[in-house]
Write a structure and sequence with these properties.
- With 211 residues, the chain is an alpha/beta fold.
- The protein folds into two domains: 5-21 and 92-210, Rossmann fold (3-Layer(aba) Sandwich), CATH 3.40.50.1000; 25-88, no CATH class.
- It is built from 13 helices and five strands.
- The protein has helices at residues 15-19, 25-35, 46-49, 51-55, 61-69, 75-88, 94-105, 118-124, 139-142, 149-159, 173-181, 195-202, 207-210, and strands at residues 10-13, 109-114, 135-138, 166-170, 185-188.
- Strands 3-2-1-4-5 form a five-stranded parallel β-sheet, with helices on both faces.
- The radius of gyration is 18 Å and the shape is globular.
- This is HAD family phosphatase.
């Protein structure tokens, strides 16, 4: 007997470092050469210091890349930086894609929740991986960023799902903790683990017992 929507789970996936792999050193080198700013991958770099505001839609592309470079950047140049940035986050994790395809084939409901700037959202529009998910939620569109509880509350309302109906997979402990605080079944992504097995085993464990 086919399951009704009320009995089907939602599987909510992060994008960066989950569906996609991390940028390679060569990617960072290309961006450093283009911007003239070294070590952008370091967590204290100008790339990361202003990233939350960019992801939240509080900065335009020109404003963000001007802060990264430390001087005013033209629209044409900032657009090129956005292309390079999207490229370095476009390397897909084949194992995770296999899991997404398997879940879709089983009739499960899939969605993505990602902290992502508007320029990157546009770059990825129509990408093959987007066809696997029924709903996509991006921080720049919502003007909210993970791990703010409000972004998860928005997702639950939009999906018309109870927290216990949602399994959330993310590589950030803070994001997973925020999801669990609302009753969502949060799983911390480990690229070395068998994600299919983790998902299957995790459903037998309540979110509260995993905190």
């Amino acid at each position: 007997m086919a399951r009704t929507d009320s009995t089907r789970r939602w599987y909510l996936f992060d994008y960066g470092n989950v569906i996609s792999t991390a940028p390679t050193p060569e990617d960072w080198d290309r961006l450093a050469e283009a911007t003239g700013v070294d070590r952008l991958q370091d967590r204290g770099s100008s790339y990361w210091r202003h990233r939350v505001a960019y992801d939240a839609g509080s900065l335009t592309s020109d404003e963000y890349w001007s802060l990264v470079q430390g001087r005013r950047v033209s629209p044409a140049r900032s657009a090129w930086f956005d292309v390079l940035d999207a490229h370095q986050w476009s390397h897909l994790n084949v194992e995770v894609l296999d899991v997404l395809e398997d879940l879709e084939a089983r009739g499960e409901r899939l969605a993505v929740l990602s902290n992502m700037p508007a320029a990157m959202v546009l770059q990825f529009a129509g990408a093959p991986w987007t066809r696997l998910v029924g709903h996509s939620f991006f921080s720049s569109s919502l003007r909210l960023v993970k791990p703010a509880p409000a972004i998860f509350e928005h997702v639950l309302a939009d999906l018309q799902a109870a927290p216990g109906q949602v399994t959330f997979v993310d590589d950030s402990p803070a994001n997973v903790a925020a999801a669990r605080s609302l009753g969502i079944h949060g799983l911390l992504f480990d690229p070395s683990s068998d994600l299919s097995r983790v998902l299957a085993q995790g459903l037998a464990v309540s979110p509260a017992s995993r905190d």
